[in-house]
Amino acid sequence: MSSKWKDFRLYVITGVNYHPGRSLMTVMEQTLQGGADIIQLRAKDMTKREVLAQAYALRKLTRHYDVPLIINDHIDIALAVDADGVHLGQDDLPLAEARRILGADRIIGISTHSIEQALRAERDGADYIGVGPVFPTGTKPGRQAVTTSYVQEAAQRIRIPFVAIGGITTSNVNEVLAAGAARICAVSAIVGSDDPAHECRSFLQAIHASDQSKPGQVDLKQIRVNGRAEQTSARHVTELVQQLGLEGKRIVVELNGQILARDAWGEAEIENGATLEMVHFVGGG
């Protein structure tokens, strides 16, 4: 697993109860088309056989889009389908045991609800942490919201990637970003919407706008796209495609005179002065 996964900005978790009448694969592919960087399979109320079947299907889908797949709780299922990692709660298998089973190359994320838990997860070797629930949420009934004060504390003290989660919508995401979050996770706001791809783009637009409003934190590069001068904070071609609203489109990308295969976009870094040509095919070709 390339360290590029650490550049993720939008993390989407499954929630089949939020989209009755629509298949899991349809909804999750729409999130990927909208720019989701990581997908987590979370299925608390299903049998293990049902979770395994969904995991195999999502593994195929996420590989097609070159996006990491994380399995909530089930380490054995993560191994069975060759997922990229697991996400564990405070009451799940200890991180050290999970690492022993999964090895050094798989991603392990930990849910945290206080700075003490966050610091412990970082010290014990977590790859990333969840910070939340920021707001009350139906996915964590009875769990007291940690508010944006914990987000602010995590931004100041935690060195590994953290993702803000819990009740976050496009209406309140700017509050979370202003508190210091750079990565956002959503469930119902995305998978429960009529247009998951549009919701993902809206979240990403808010995240990128927040990047550009924080002096010293974003290096805006001068590039040329189809002959036009542009400024961008995109680190690689995949992120630029998302910023330009072209995710999910049939396009060919040429970077500095070299045509890139789609599966190489995430590795193709955009440097200051880069020149890109993007050809968008519509209709039959």
UniProtKB/TrEMBL annotation:
GO terms, molecular function: thiamine-phosphate diphosphorylase activity
Protein name: Thiamine-phosphate synthase
NCBIfam families: thiE, thiS
Function: Condenses 4-methyl-5-(beta-hydroxyethyl)thiazole monophosphate (THZ-P) and 2-methyl-4-amino-5-hydroxymethyl pyrimidine pyrophosphate (HMP-PP) to form thiamine monophosphate (TMP).
Cofactor dependence: Mg(2+)
Keyword Transferase on entry: yes
Cited CDD domains: TMP_TenI (cd00564), Ubl_ThiS (cd00565)
Organism: Paenibacillus mendelii
EC number(s) from the headed UniProt entry: 2.5.1.3
Cofactor remark from the record: Binds 1 Mg(2+) ion per subunit.
